[in-house]
Amino acid sequence: MNKIVTVRKMALLFMFCSLLNIPSVNAAPGRWEKEISGSGWQLWLDHAAVWNNDEAFMPPVNISKLPINPPTCGWERLDKVYNKIVDVPGTVEEHFWGAIGGVIPDIGGDYHGVSWWSNKFTLDPDIRGKRIIIYFESVNLRAEVFVNKQLVGYDVIGNSQFEVDATNAVTFDGENRIDVRITDVCGSFSYQDNILYRWGENLVPGVHGFGGITGPVIIKATDAVHVDDIYVQNKPNPRKVEAFITLGNSSGNTNNGKVTLVIHEWKNPSQVLWEKTVSTSVPREGKKLSFKVNAPKAKLWELAGHRTWKQANLYEASVRFTSDDGEIIDTYSQRFGFRWFGLGEKNGDQRFYLNGKRVFIMAAMTRGFWPKNGIFATPEMAKREMDVLIDLGYNMMLLHRAIGQPPVMDYSDRMGILTYEEPGGYRIMPNKADNINGPDDRARFWRKEKLRRMVIRDRSLPSMVIYNLKNEARKDYPNEHDYDCMRMVHELDPSRIFTYNSDRNVDHPSIENHSEDPQKLWMKPFDDTFYYHGWWDQHHWFPFAGYIDENYNNPAFYLRYNIVRGDSLHPILKDEIIFWGEEGAFGTMVRLEKIKKELEVTGATGFRELEHIDWFNTYNTFLDKSGFRSAYPTVDDLTMSLGRNMHYFHGRNIENIRMGNISDAYNLNGWGSASTRSDIVDIYRYPTADPSILRHYTQPLYIAVKIRDKVLPTGSIPVVDFWIVNENNLNGKNTLEIEFNDPVGKTIYTKKFTVSIKGGEEFGQLLVETVTLPPVEKPGHYMVNARITKNGVEKANGFDDIFAVDYLSAPGFPENCAVIETDNTIKELLKAARGITVPDYDLNDSGLDLIIVGTHDFGDKGEEIYRDVLKRVVNGATVIVLEHADLWAEQLNDVSRSKPFTYQGGGIIRFGQRGRYFVGKSSFLGGLPDAQSMNWEYQFFYNTRDVQGIRLHHWGTETIVALGGQHTKEILNALSRVQLGKGHIILSTMNILPGLASKRPQAAVPKKLFLNLLEHSE
Fold first, then answer.
1. Where are the alpha helices (DSSP H) in 91-198?
2. What is the distance between the alpha carbons of residues 638 and 641, in angstroms, rounded to a whole number?
3. Where are the alpha helices (DSSP H) in 712-763?
C-alpha cells in the first residue's frame, strides 16, 4: 500500500506555514505533526483476551478510572508473538478472512475479539514541552490506546474521529511505542444497520462487522493555545461564508493574542482571496469566534460536467493564532468551497438549486463496503469509485446506512460530486434474536455522539448537501430523542437540508401522498421549523429483474409518473421535493474475472476474496462443461452480459423521471454492496455492464424516444412518442427529424415536425406523441432514430429499438405428435399458429415421435404414464416438458443409467428477482437473440416472480437457457435437452405456458421459442 496521504484538515498545515513563513519542523513555538499510520505495524490476535462482558464507557472518559487491559501474552512478549506486519489503516478481516474460515459461507471469516496493533515512533526533542495529541480518523469498534504501556486514550463510538492526550506518556529521548487494543464485538456484513447488538450489558447500535484501525493516525504537538476546529458555513449568497473558529487553551491561564484568517486557493497559499486579523483573549476554557467573509471574486464550486471533470474550485480557510509575546503559535486549515445548495420554487414546483441554477440529482447508493479490508476506502479505491461515477454520468454519491469515509468525501469535493450522508446504525430497532426489546439511554447516547462527530467532521465540505437520520423507518415515528438529535445537528450546521427518514410512511398505501406526515419530517437550511410536508422520498424494489414495456405505456401513464402495477404515486405532487430514494433493488453477478486478476496481484487474504475466486472457477468450469464457451469466450463476457439488463432498466427509468420534469432526484439501488449484490458497480468498483448503456441516459441533452411496445409480433404497427431531456437550455423553434430503419438498416419511414422547446429550467418536455410507424413485416431489430436540428445543424439526437418476432411461419414439426394437458393451451396455440389440430396423448398410440407436456395432473395413472412416455423416449421419441420439470427429472433418473444422476435433486429452485436467464448458441433460438443474457427482448420470461431452474448434471445435457444469480455461484438449468437412450427429453422451468395463452405482444417470444422446440427437436 502506498503511504496514506492525510486527507483531513490538519494535513494542510505545511502549506499554511509556508504562507506565513513559519518553519514546519523543529519549530518552537508552533505546531508539529507526524503521520504514524502506514507500513510496519505489528498485528496480533489476542484470542485469550476476555471482553464479552466489558462495560462500554461513553465519552468523555476519565482515563484514570478505566480498567487496564494489557495483552494476555504480557507486554514483554508482545513484540515476539505478533501474527503479521501490516499497514494501517487495516482490519483483521483484511488479513485473516480466508485463514479463519471465510470462504463459504461469506461470514465465516468474521473475527470477534481483541486485536493489538503496535508500532514505534520518535518525537523531535525540540518539541519537548508541547501538548502531544494522537488523532485517530476512525477505528472499529473499541479502541484502548497505550503509549509506552500507559493507557492514554479510549473510544468506543466507532467509525469516527477522536483524539487522545499522550503528553505525559511520551519520551523525547528515544523510541516511543504505541499499542492500540481494538475490540471487535459485533457487526453485520450486509446493508442492515437497524438492529441493536448485545455486548454484555451494552446495546450497540448497528455497525459493520470489521475490526481494526480504519483511518490514518497522526501525532500533533501544539502550544498551549491551539486551533481545535474551523467550520466554514456557506450562505445563500454563494460568495459569502462565515468561518467559525474554536480555540482551545490547556495553559490554565488566559492568553492574549491575535487570530488571522486567510482565505486562499486550495494548495496554493500564494493566491490569497481574503484576509483579516483580530485581537482576542483566550480564557482557560477556550474561545469561539467567527469571521464573515465576502469574496465577490471567488470562483464557485460547481458540479462536474457529464462524463468530464476538472479540478473543482476549492479554497482553504487557514487560521493562525499568535500570542502577544510570540511564545504561542498555532495554525490550522480547513478545505471548503464557495457554493450554495438550496431549494426554490417555480410554477408551484419545488426544485433543487446549486448556485442559483436548477440541478437534478442522479445518485448512486453505496453502503460503505470496500475490497479486502471491507470497511474503508483507500485513496486509490476512492478515486476509482469517483472515476466510474463520473463515467456513468452521475452527480451524487449517497452514503447509505454507514458513515461516509473521508477519502470518498475528499474526491467528491475535488471532482465536483455531491454527497448525501447517513451516520448508519441510527435506527436501533429491537433485536428479537438477542432478546433486545429496544434501546437504552447508553445506546441513544452512542448514536447521538456518532451523529455529532459526523456533522462536525463534514460540515465544511462543499460536496455535502443533505444529512439523513434513518433509512426506511417504516412505522418508527420520530420521538423526542429524534427531535433532540435534529436540533443538535441543525445547531451544529444550520446550512444544510436535514431529513428524518428516507422512504415513505408504509402505514399508508403507496398511492397516497399525505400532505402532513411525521415520516416526512425535515428541516430547511437556516430555518428552525420542523416541516412535515415538502419532501417526498419513496423507495421502489422493482419486482422484475429487468426492463418491461409496461414501464412506459403512453405520455400520461408511465413508471414514476403515475401508477404502474401499484408501484408509484398518483399523482406526483409538484409542491414537494420528489426524491426517489432507492430505485431498482435487483442485482447481478460481480466482475469475477476482473476481481480474480486483481487478486492475482494483491493476494487473496481479505474479505470475500477466496469466495470470489471460487465463484470464478465455478463460472469458468460451466463455460467449458456446458458448451457456452463459444458464446462467452471469457467469464467476464458472461458477467458483463448478465449485468446489461439491470443497467438498461436504470437507464430507461431515469429517463422517465427526467423527461417528466417533476421529480428532483433519483438514487439507484445499489453500488458496491457486498451482501445484496444489487450492483451497478461491484465492490471493486468495476461496472457490471458496458458503461455506455447508462451513460446515454444520464447525458444532459438528448431525445428520449419512447416506443410503447418494444417487443412485437411481425405485422404489428409500432407507436412512438418523442420527448426531450434538456439540461443545456436548448430552446425555441427547432425541427424534429425521425427515421425508421428495418433489420438490415434500410430506411422505411421518415418525417419532420416543428417543435417549440422551452429550455431554461424545464429539463423534460413532451415534443410529439402518438406517431404511428409502418408495420414491422420482417423479424429482427428495427431502429427509430431521431434528431433535433436548427438551420440544418444537429442539436440533439436519440434512439430506441424494436424487436419483431415471426412465430407464424416455420418449417413445421413431426406429424406423429400428441399433447398431455388439461387446459388446451398448447392445442389452441398450435391451431392458431400452425393451423393444425394435435391429438391428446394416448397410451395405446404406438407411433408417437413427439409428446408435449403442458399443465397436467396424472392422479393415479402417474406411474404408468411416466413409464410409457420415457420408454418412448428411450426408443427415439422427443418429449417437451413445460410443467413440473423436477418431477419428470426424477423419473428420468429412474430410467437413465447415468452416474452421477442427470438430475441432481432439490426440486425447482426459485431465484426470483435475483435470477438472470442467459442463452448460448443453439438451433432452438432461431429468430431470437442468442449468446447473451436475456435482455428486454425476452422480458416475458422475467416479467414474473418465477425465475427458476433445476440442477442437471452436464453429462448428456444440452443447456439451452441457463440461470445465474446475483447471490450464488450456482448455475441452474432453465431449459435443457437431455439425451435418454435414442431420444431426448426437453425440460423447461420457464413460464412458456403462460406465454402461449397470452395476448400481450411480448408473448411472441415464448411462442417462438416453444415452436422452435417443436420444429428443431430432431
1. 92-96
2. 5
3. none
DSSP secondary structure code for residue 728 in this structure: S
Question: Which residues have C-beta within 8 Å of that of residue 674, sequence separation ≥ 6?
Answer: 189, 190, 367, 369, 374, 607, 608, 683
Bridge partner list, 44 = 116
Residue whose grid cell is 520518535: 122
Within 13 A of 887's CA, how many CA atoms are on the CB side? 14
| Cβ–Cβ under 8 Å, residues 399 and 370 | no
Provide φ and ψ at 419, rounded to 5°.
-130, 155
Strand 84-88: give its sheet, edge to edge: 84-88, 38-46, 113-121, 176-184, 142-147, 150-155
Residues 400-419: b if buried by 16+ CB within 10 A, e if exposed: bbbbbbbbbbbbbbbbbbbb
Beta bridge partners of 429: 195
Q: Name the one residue in this structure whose C-alpha cell is 472457477.
A: 617
Check residue 192 and give its pLDDT.
87
Q: What is the DSSP string of 487-505?
A: HHHHHH-TTSEEEEEES--
Report how far apart, in Å, the C-alpha atoms of 343 and of each of 236, 492, 524, 534, 978 are: 10, 20, 8, 10, 63
> Which cell numbers in the block locate residue 179?
499499542
SS3 at position 834: helix
Q: Which residue has the cell 451513460?
A: 695
| Confidence at residue 5, expressed as pLDDT on a 0 to 100 scale | 37
Cis peptide bond N-terminal to 811, omega within 30: no
Helix (H) or strand (E) holding 761: none
Mean pLDDT of the 563-583 span: 77
Query: Among residues 909, 910, 931, 935, which one has the least CA distance to residue 922?
Result: 931
Backbone angles phi, psi at 365, to 5 degrees: -120, 110
Strands 764-772 and 780-790: unpaired
Listed residue (119, 164, 112) closest to 137, CA to CA: 164
264/15 Cα distance (integer angstroms): 11
Q: Report which DSSP code applies to 842.
A: -
- Provide the CB-side half-sphere exposure for 114 (13 A, CA): 20
* pLDDT of res. 256: 98
Rounded to 5°, the CA angle 502-507-511 comes to 80
pLDDT in tens, 127-140: 999 999 999 999 99
513 band by pLDDT with thresholds 50, 70 and 90: low
Longest Cα separation, the chain: 114
Taking 3-state DSSP, the helix, strand and coil percentages for the chain, each rounded to the nearest 5, stand at 25, 35, 40
Q: Please report which confidence band the pLDDT of residue 22 belongs to, taking 50, 70 and 90 as the band edges.
A: very low
Q: How sure is the predictor about 305, in pLDDT bands with cuts at 50, 70 and 90?
A: confident
Tell me: the pLDDT tens digits for 163-220?
Answer: 999 999 999 999 999 999 999 999 999 888 999 999 999 999 999 999 999 999 999 9
